[in-house]
Specification:
With about 375 residues, this protein is α+β, with helices and mostly antiparallel strands. Helix content is about 20%, strand content about 25%. It has three domains: about 140 residues, Double Stranded RNA Binding Domain (2-Layer Sandwich), CATH 3.30.160; about 100 residues, no CATH class; about 70 residues. The strands form five sheets. The protein has a six-stranded mixed beta sheet, covered by helices on one side. A six-stranded antiparallel beta sheet has the order 9-10-11-12-13-14, covered by helices on one side.
Length: about 375
């Protein structure tokens, strides 16, 4: 009995020790770093190209560079390619929390149009704040700024673990897609930036050609300038007192070496009838302007040399001071905002693609500036 009791006691002691060890081990596991991943939509698997946009900085340049390198490497291992902002399908934003900025609200303070509140884009504990030193990575659609993936890690040492469940590229979906890039929701708008004197000729649809009696030439009837085409396909435009030529209507234009036979007849007939020719009175002196011919909606912004920016007092905005239009740069996300007669447009670079922007999606400082002075 005594032996049995001793054995039973010994067994109980061992069992308690095992349970205690298990609980201790579980406690250790719970204290190990954990990683969170969230895919609010299956869209993340459709993206092949991306660019990295700095988010909330750690305050140390070398740390920020290491984080970016780790994120780019992790995405490359998933088959994604880093490219330029105008070609990227996705935007990757990297944040590192600091004592003064630990919430997603703080990360995106003042960022206009960013849909970062997608369901699930929260820390594991359900709160809207992260521990200091955490790394948060958001992946957005480059066109709509809608969040398509979110991940976080407790520090920057093992960022690559955050991407172990990143959705693989759906090559089948890509092959079935008929679009080579982002599609504007309200139709394309091309905004052309030129640092040289330039002229924008608009066509009402694809070029329409009409024979000119007594010549071998054709006139383009749906252009807002006087334009001809000869038998060889060479195009000519009369801008002010000068003739310009191009082998293709959308190609590179230069001063014409020779004016085609019959051009004077075509011009005389044209000038005796009411036509829309916005360039009839354009000066014939000075440098030859760049010629842009557009079928789709387009606007031309001319700068006096390369774009130059100046701070806008009382805001974080920078304004393009040498442009003939209202162009602002929002330094938080570095996007450009252009105000045209038809509204506001934004893009990552002056090369576009441009997207129409409603008032609700303008950056906070730009909204405040408009409230003070009216539309730019």
């Amino acid at each position: 009995m005594d032996s049995t009791n001793r054995c039973g006691a010994r067994t109980s002691t061992i069992a308690v020790a095992v349970i205690a060890l298990a609980l201790s081990t579980m406690g250790c596991v719970q204290r190990l770093p954990h990683y969170t991943y969230k895919v609010p939509t299956p869209a993340a698997g459709r993206y092949v190209t991306f660019f990295v946009l700095p988010g909330h900085s750690s305050g140390d340049t070398s740390t920020d560079l290491r984080l970016k390198t780790a994120v780019v490497t992790a995405l490359a291992e998933q088959g994604l390619i880093e490219t330029s902002p105008e070609e990227a399908e996705a935007v990757v934003v990297i944040h590192m929390t600091t004592p003064g900025s630990r919430s997603r609200e703080a990360f995106y303070q003042g960022w206009g149009g960013w849909a970062w509140r997608a369901a699930g884009a929260r820390p594991r504990n359900g709160a809207d704040t992260y521990a200091v030193g955490s790394v948060v990575v958001d992946v957005f659609d480059a066109w709509t700024k809608t969040l398509v993936w979110n991940g976080s890690a407790p520090d920057g040492k093992h960022v690559e673990r955050m991407f172990k469940d990143f959705p693989a590229i759906d090559h089948g979906a890509l092959a079935r897609s008929t679009s080579a890039g982002p599609s504007p929701p309200d139709g394309p708008m091309r905004i052309i930036f030129s640092s040289r004197p330039a002229i924008l000729i608009r066509l009402d649809g694809e070029p329409k050609y009409e024979d000119i009696a007594g010549t071998t030439l054709q006139r383009i009837t749906n252009a807002d300038a006087f334009m001809l085409r000869d038998e060889s396909g060479m195009h000519y435009a009369r801008i002010g007192g000068r003739w310009l030529e191009a082998s293709d209507i959308s190609g590179s234009w230069s001063l014409a070496g020779m004016v085609p036979d019959g051009a004077d007849i075509a011009l005389q007939e044209y000038t005796t009838q009411p036509h829309l020719d916005r360039f009839a009175a354009t000066g014939s002196h000075g440098p030859t302007p760049m010629i842009y011919v557009e079928v789709a909606p387009a606007e031309l912004v001319i700068t006096d040399g390369e774009p130059q920016y100046a701070d806008v007092g009382g805001t974080s905005l920078r304004r393009m001071r040498n442009a003939n239009a209202s162009v602002f740069q929002e330094p938080t996300d570095r996007q450009l905002y252009v105000h045209l007669p038809v509204g506001w447009f934004r893009a990552w670079t002056t090369n576009g693609p441009w997207q129409a922007v409603g008032d609700a999606d303008l950056p906070t400082d730009l909204t405040a500036l408009r409230a003070q002075s009216g539309p730019a």
